[in-house]
Amino acid sequence: MSTTHRFFLAIALCCLLVLTLFAIAEEKTRTATPTQKLSLTAALVLTPEFCATVNKKKSERFPVGKTACAELEPALKGIFTTLTRVDDSSKAGDAQLVLEPKFADVAATEAAIAFSNRELVVQVEWTVRDQSGKSVWIETVQGEAKRHVGNAFTYGSNLKHIVQESVEDMAQQSAAKMSSSPELLKLSAAAVK
């Protein structure tokens, strides 16, 4: 191996190390908003269409629906007295609230080179209805993640991780916003009385 090749290999490895350290530091500095438990029963509506959502950007496919259906229920379970997962709002039964998510947007930055960073933003619009069907809370929640693109060998794994991390962030942000929502806190207080 020539001296020039060794030099560029050493630079590439240093850059990879620096990017990894930045990613670890960013993950550690990300703080989760504490959630407050609501004294309400809820039905989380995860339709087959929502769970099958695959966002296509140029030649890339972001399977956000499957990941969201795996992440939303555990994230929201801790903020309600009872949370039931249903695949249609008509199956909500006697739940006090019906939680209906819908993907509003999925956006990814373009990657210039293999080791450049990119960002994926997942936005979900929530509609929360009471037992009468009246909308009591509508909010758009955003989750995001940054990760390097990788090369031809690691691209698939990095794509999977950036989808997972951005959807996890959206699920945690959804739980935090719901648990601190004045409208839902008011309903929770009324249910306790």
Question: What does it look like?
Answer:
There is one protein chain. This protein has 193 residues and is α/β, with parallel strands linked by helices. The protein has one domain: Double Stranded RNA Binding Domain (2-Layer Sandwich). Helices cover 42% and strands 32% of the residues. The strands form 2 sheets. Strands 4-1-5-6-7 form a 5-stranded mixed β-sheet. A two-stranded antiparallel ribbon has the order 2-3. Helix 3 runs parallel beside helix 4. The protein starts with a helix and ends with a helix. About 3% of the residues have low confidence.
What brief labels describe this structure?
alpha/beta; 32% strand; two-stranded antiparallel ribbon; elongated; Double Stranded RNA Binding Domain; 193 residues; five-stranded mixed β-sheet
List the helices and strands and how they pair.
Blueprint: H1 3-29, E1 38-45, H2 48-51, E2 55-57, E3 60-62, H3 64-77, E4 80-86, E5 97-108, E6 117-130, E7 135-148, H4 155-179, H5 182-192
Parallel strand pairs: 1-4, 1-5
Antiparallel strand pairs: 2-3, 5-6, 6-7
